[in-house]
């Protein structure tokens, strides 16, 4: 049975495509940032330096990188509710040339 509104089908397809692109862009880079931040934190803990030294700065940098990764993952997880939430870029018309 064919859909009675092909425009709605096209909008739904565009929404699914946008969700997939957003997932691929933000989730993987966010997970990579989290792993990198955890490695930085681990290397800071292995320094065994005295308090108020480079160890604290390295651990702080690792925490910031982990937080950035978590935010990127959350951005990737949150999806637009409808196709109206997407910005539509119209191709330039021939009259504008």
Structural class: mainly alpha
Helix content: 55-70%
Count of DSSP helices? Answer: 2
Please, what is the average pLDDT? 79
- Low-pLDDT ranges: none
Radius of gyration: 22 Å
Measure the end-to-end span: 43 Å
Secondary structure tally: strands: 0
- Main β-sheet: number of strands, strand sense, barrel status? none
Q: Name the overall outline.
A: rod-shaped
Q: Could you state the order of secondary-structure elements as H and E?
A: HH
SS strand fraction: under 5%
Q: Can you characterise this structure?
A:
This protein is rod-shaped. The mean pLDDT is 79. It has a domain at 15-78. 67% of the residues lie in helices and 0% in strands. With 97 residues, the protein is mainly α. The two termini are 43 Å apart.
Main attributes of the structure:
97 residues; mainly alpha; rod-shaped
List the helices and strands and how they pair.
Elements: H1 6-46, H2 54-77
Helix pairs in contact: 1-2
Compact summary:
With 97 residues, the protein is mainly alpha-helical.
């Amino acid at each position: 049975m064919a859909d009675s509104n092909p425009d709605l089908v096209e909008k739904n397809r565009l929404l699914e495509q946008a969700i997939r692109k957003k997932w691929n862009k933000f989730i993987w880079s966010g997970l990579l940032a989290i792993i990198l931040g955890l490695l930085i934190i681990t290397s800071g803990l292995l320094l065994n330096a005295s308090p108020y030294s480079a160890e604290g700065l390295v651990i702080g940098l690792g925490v910031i990188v982990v937080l950035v990764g978590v935010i990127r993952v959350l951005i990737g997880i949150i999806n637009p509710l409808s196709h109206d939430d997407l910005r539509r870029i119209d191709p330039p018309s021939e009259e504008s040339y």
